[in-house]
């Protein structure tokens, strides 16, 4: 999530809300958010993983959620899907590019 | 079915650190939403 924190103001400027979604329980997540001093909400999908399942990022066999970033326009339509397990910087960079196109 | 560009985004209800519910509908007509799923706390990225 550090990559999103670093460019959060750019998302804000483009009129977008960044939401981090974790499958972690509350205690560790609170520590996590605080430790990074994030300026956007980290939301919990624990314990039912309903959002991860609805967005098809839940990996049943691995019992974890894949790293996927969705860009949703203000009418509720998906405008971008960024998938990369290894390069997190690409998530914020691509998402910001798409958000700016929408703005 | 994987979601793709052009699909309607499923609504969600997630809890923030103060245990308030945040839904996609909260932003409709107002803001684009960047929904970033990540694995586990304290993983890089």
What report would you give on this structure?
With 103 residues, chain A is α+β, with helices and mostly antiparallel strands. Chain A has helices spanning 2-6, 8-13, 26-36, 50-54, 89-102; strands at 16-22, 42-44, 58-59, 64-65, 68-72, 78-83. Chain A is globular and about 35 Å long. The mean pLDDT of chain A is 84. The model of chain B has no long low-confidence stretch (mean pLDDT 85). Chain B is built from no helices and 3 strands. Chain B starts with 12 loop residues before the first strand and ends in a 7-residue tail after the last strand. Chain B has a two-stranded antiparallel sheet. Chain B is 0% helix and 29% strand. Chain B has 45 residues and is mostly beta strands. In chain B, strand 1 (13-15) and strand 2 (21-23) form a beta hairpin. Classes of the chains: A alpha+beta (103), B mainly beta (45). The interface between A and B is large, with 61 and 38 residues. Strand 5 (68-72) of chain A pairs antiparallel with strand 3 of chain B.
Index terms:
heterodimer, A: 103 residues, alpha+beta, two-stranded parallel ribbon, two-stranded antiparallel ribbon, 5 helices, 6 strands, 40% helix, globular, B: 45 residues, mainly beta, 3 strands
Give a brief outline of the structure:
The complex is a heterodimer of chains A (103) and B (45). Chain A is built from 5 helices and 6 strands.
Give the arrangement of secondary structure elements:
The complex is a heterodimer of chains A (103) and B (45).
Chain A: H1 2-6, H2 8-13, E1 16-22, H3 26-36, E2 42-44, H4 50-54, E3 58-59, E4 64-65, E5 68-72, E6 78-83, H5 89-102
Parallel strand pairs in A: 1-2
Antiparallel strand pairs in A: 3-4, 5-6
Chain B: E1 13-15, E2 21-23, E3 32-38
Antiparallel strand pairs in B: 1-2
Range of helix content of chain B: under 10%
Order of helices and strands of chain A: HHEHEHEEEEH
Instruction: Give the spatial strand order of the biggest sheet of chain B.
Output: 1-2
Oligomer: heterodimer
Gyration radius of chain A, rounded: 14 Å
Cα radius of gyration of chain B in angstroms: 13 Å
Number of helices of chain B: 0
Largest sheet of chain B: 2 strands, antiparallel
Unreliable stretches of chain A: none
Whole-number mean pLDDT of chain A? 84
Secondary structural class of chain A: alpha+beta
Termini separation of chain B: 27 Å
Mean pLDDT score of chain B, rounded? 85
Summarize the amount of helix of chain A as a percent range: 25-40%
- Net shape of chain A: globular
Poorly predicted segments of chain B: none
> Strand arrangement, largest sheet of chain A?
1-2
Distance between the termini of chain A: 23 Å
Q: In total, how many beta strands of chain A?
A: 6
Give the percentage of residues in beta strands of chain B: 25-35%
Largest interface: A-B, 61 and 38 residues
């Amino acid at each position: 999530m550090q990559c999103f924190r670093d460019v959060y103001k750019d998302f804000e400027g483009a009129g977008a809300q960044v939401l981090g979604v974790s499958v972690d329980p509350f205690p560790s997540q609170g520590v996590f958010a605080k430790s990074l001093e994030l300026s956007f909400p980290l939301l919990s999908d624990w314990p039912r993983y309903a959002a991860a399942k609805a967005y098809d990022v839940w990996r049943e066999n691995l019992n974890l959620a894949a790293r996927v970033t969705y860009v949703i326009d203000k009418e509720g339509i998906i405008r971008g899907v960024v998938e990369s397990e290894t390069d997190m910087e690409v998530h914020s960079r691509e998402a910001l590019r798409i958000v700016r196109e929408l703005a | 079915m994987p979601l793709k560009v052009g699909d309607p985004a499923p609504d969600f209800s997630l809890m923030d650190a103060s245990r308030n519910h945040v839904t996609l509908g909260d932003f409709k007509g107002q803001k684009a939403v960047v929904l970033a799923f990540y694995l586990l706390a304290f993983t890089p990225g």
